[in-house]
Amino acid sequence: MDWSHSLRLIAPEETLSIAGLVLLLIAAWGGDKASRLISILAVAALVGATFLVAPALCGGAMGPDYSAFFGQVHADAFSSFAKILIYLSAAATLVVAPAFFDRLGAMKAEFPILVIFAALGSGMMVSAGDLLALYIGLEMNSLAAYVLAAFVRTDGRSAEAGLKYFVLGALASGILLFGMSLTYGFTGTTSFSGINAALAGGLSNGALFGIVFMLAGLAFKISAVPFHMWTPDVYEGAPTPVTKFFATSGKVAAIGLTMRVMLDAFADQADAWRQIIVFIALASIVVGALGAIGQKNIKRLMAYSSINNVGFILVGLSSANVQGASAMLFYLVIYVAMTVAGFVTILMLKDENGEPVEEIARLGGLSRTRPGLALALAIVMFSLAGIPPLFGFWGKFLVFRAAVHADMMALAFLGFAASVIGAFYYLKIVKVAYFDEPVDAVKGESDVWHKAILIVTCLFISPLGYLLSGWLQGLTDTAATALFHTL
Amino acid sequence: MSGFPILSLMLLVPLAAALVCLFLEAKAARTLALAATLVDLVLGIVLWMNFDIGGAQWQFTERLEIFSGFSYAVGIDGIALLLIMLSVFLMPICIGASQSVEKRVGEYMAAFLLVEVFMLGVFMAQDLYLFYMFFEAGLIPMYLIIGIWGGADRIYASYKFFLYTLLGSVLMLVAMLWMVHTAGTSDIPTLMAYDFDPQVQTWLWLAFFASFAVKMPMWPVHTWLPAAHVQAPTAGSIILAGVLLKMGGYGFIRFSLPMFPEASAYFAPLVWGLSMAAVVITSLIALVQSDMKKLIAYSSVAHMAIVTIGLFAFNVQGLEGSMLVMLSHGLVSGALFLCVGIIYDRLHTREITRYGGLAINMPRYALFFLLFTMASIGLPGTSGFVGEFLSLGGIYQVSTWTALICTTGIILGAAYMLYLYRRVVFGEQKNADAAAMSDLDLREIAMVVPLALGALWMGIYPESFIAPMRADIAALDARLARAAPHGDSAPTPGKAKPAHHEEAAHGGSH
């Protein structure tokens, strides 16, 4: 394993690190006036990193050749797939953020840089081939995320969100670390392949505890029940572009990492962890759906929606095979598009003073005052609810198909039946926007970039998305296969 | 005709029109929607003319592999053809009946055209997943139609409609996933001949039943229907009763019966029981309604119970009868809702007591309403008679008691329909405003005449409607023969008893 090879494999990480440091310098010299320039450069860096990882995905990279630094980092098709999602949604965050912060006068030069570092950490999470790399990536992402959550210091809610996220995140990190140390103690190694090999002979109780604690820590990161409590508060309190970033890049990274750990390090112990996954999947679907029903704030509703969706994604994990992993990745793509569209719509909901309109009741009659926006909202909601022919249906379909193929009929039945509860609150938004009397609260003008991103994502989750599904299916299959062949 | 993608064209025309309608002014949207539905009607007639009766079972087939595991495959047999004809026939009438809709006309027309796309798709789909997509997609425009353009309690009704139907269909989807996994194909014609393990069949059957029973709707999961009917705008009620309910019956014919014959036989007594209860109970409920739409809605539930009775009689008579009841009910209940809509537009109330003596000032209306009432009752010479006669005859061969009880429902049906007619059309003119209503205008006549002609045609010469489906029904009957249930009348020796055990509760859940 020569160093130049390893360094070549982590080119996207290097690009982002250097870009982040250079931009820090620019920020130091230029101050907040340079924030627009820094945003543009940061987007360029993220897009550049995307182009650097794309070949590995298209080439179907897998195996020891794509493993850097003695197995610490995997630059295979799986990590590339997740990174493309992470980088692109981070770039989308930077594109939509200025319009939001300008109003508050809170656009600081640090914002794009923090996003870059968070994306860098996220990328490392999905590439991890070792507990050490996992933890470094996770903390790198988390530290940036804590600051981002509290980015609007003057807003009490934002500060509270940052504090909550930090305290609970640190706790989860501790739990995860405890699980990792148990795993290391009972297997004698920190590399995923080593752990897998060490557990081949059977699972000791200590190692089982390690799995459970690691899962608990990861469940916090993906906001799965019963470690979901922070999500609504943080989603509501954080500035909307940041919430969007957490819900997309952060989610992809955390789920990618969970897949890596479960399907790589503990691949042969699926029977041991499957029941945990089945439980948290069903619990997330049900709790997410029930919790969302009473929400009055649309950002809190999206938080519960993300808990609900994580449940569906985990259904794919419970099958513990290539098909399930591929279905999860496919779901993630659609989920990211739906979430971006949803949050961009929320960003565009402004009253005449440019203040955000977050109360659901104030969206009454939106379809008459702002038909385009209402249509986008309806598309997002029906898609999140998984009603065909919208593309959101296909994600749910694939994960449940994987579950059925893995002979988990009961899970599929319960999961699908619970999805009807979810449909109830998604319908509520459509009802408010389309059936209620106009409140005429939403008046503000929309940023052109918001419109552009909204149109692209809405077209993707509309039935037109199916045209891409053949191509996407190929990519997710490649990525999922790579996950099962890493060494 | 071969090779010309007429089915796809029938889907594309309303789809394209729907997208354009979104951006049009009210008047232009109306014209375009009417034009698009008329084009589809013409295409439907072309389809019917070119349908080779007695030819290959599946005709006009098109297949396009979109990606692995999902293909766009459409094609029709005689059964689908008849239901497609019903749909394209009713659609222009629905558009015509929407004259009183004044707000957001473009979106309204778009929603209606989408309903047409999805319901045609349901009848055309030859791929299990494609069927499911169309089946469930129809919920979105119907939800919007009820919720935006409906009556005072529209929001409750739209939710109930959506969630009831959705819960039914997601259970069906799980069963579909399992079937495709086991049989290795999502091709409906192949699956119709595939023999699933009889024990697993019971589970699959129940999952499909959950969906179709709600859609049909069968007692006791019918409660969404009166709510939806009463709140929906006139055209919404017409299409709901006329076509959307038929998706349930179509589902039984296309999926439950041929794919799970043993399970169908096993559960036949359950279906009979629910249907008997439905016929009697909902007819009695209909008798005491004071709202015209509610009365007709409950009568729809009773008629649909006759359909399920016929389907689960397991013989040709019953199956053909059920199909005819569905077609007839599509025409007649659509027409009855239209009749209610016509006077509702004038007086803005559906209270029966607010009318009376309409025969004096609205003689033409009284005539057509009478015809449809008679057809609903099942008077010989009208469409209602043939289907009910065959269905009940079919079930009589299997179960005398079931037939007997269902016949009381027919009598009750006559009672509530005549009672309705008497209170609305005959008697003295108690209310001045009702007495001042004008008779049918040209547009309204143009809508009721085709329905009346259809109801008479089906009553006088039902062979036109039986011929296209004869071969398909015979094939279905042959497939069912081995599983036909034992009845209490007319013993059929030599038919195998279904091999099921009630304690097979764990089957399929592993």
Describe this structure in words.
The complex is a heterodimer of chains A (487) and B (510). By secondary structure, chain A is mainly alpha-helical. Helices cover 76% and strands 1% of the residues of chain A. Chain A has helices spanning 3-9, 11-30, 35-58, 77-104, 110-127, 131-149, 156-187, 192-198, 205-221, 230-237, 240-265, 270-293, 298-318, 322-348, 366-369, 371-385, 392-405, 409-434, 448-461, 466-483; strands at 67-68, 73-74. In chain A, a hairpin with a 4-residue loop joins strand 1 (67-68) and strand 2 (73-74). In chain A, helix 14 packs antiparallel against helix 17 (392-405). The model of chain A has no long low-confidence stretch (mean pLDDT 88). With 510 residues, chain B is mainly alpha-helical. Chain B has helices spanning 6-21, 26-50, 78-96, 105-124, 128-137, 139-149, 154-183, 188-192, 198-215, 224-231, 234-259, 261-287, 292-311, 316-347, 358-361, 363-377, 383-396, 400-425, 432-435, 442-460, 463-481, and strands at residues 59-67, 70-76. Chain B has a two-stranded antiparallel sheet. In chain B, strand 1 (59-67) and strand 2 (70-76) form a beta hairpin. The longest helix of chain B is centred in the middle third of the chain and has 32 residues, at 316-347. Classes of the chains: A mainly alpha (487), B mainly alpha (510). Chain A binds chain B through residues 368, 382, 387-389, 393, 397, 400-401, 404-405, 407, 409-410, 412-413, 416-417, 419-420, 423-424, 427, 430-431, 434-435, 466, 469-470, 473, and chain B through 66-70, 104, 129, 132-133, 136-137, 139-140, 143-144, 147-148, 154-155, 158-159, 162-163, 166-167, 170-171, 173-174, 177-178, 181, 508-510.
How far apart, in Å, are the first and last alpha carbons of chain B?
48 Å
C-alpha Rg of chain A, in Å? 21 Å
Spatially, the strands of the biggest sheet of chain A line up as 1-2
The SSE order of chain B reads HHEEHHHHHHHHHHHHHHHHHHH
Strand order of the largest sheet of chain B: 1-2
Class by SSE composition of chain A: mainly alpha
Radius of gyration of chain B: 22 Å
Uncertain residue segments of chain B: 490-510
* Ends apart, CA distance between termini of chain A: 14 Å
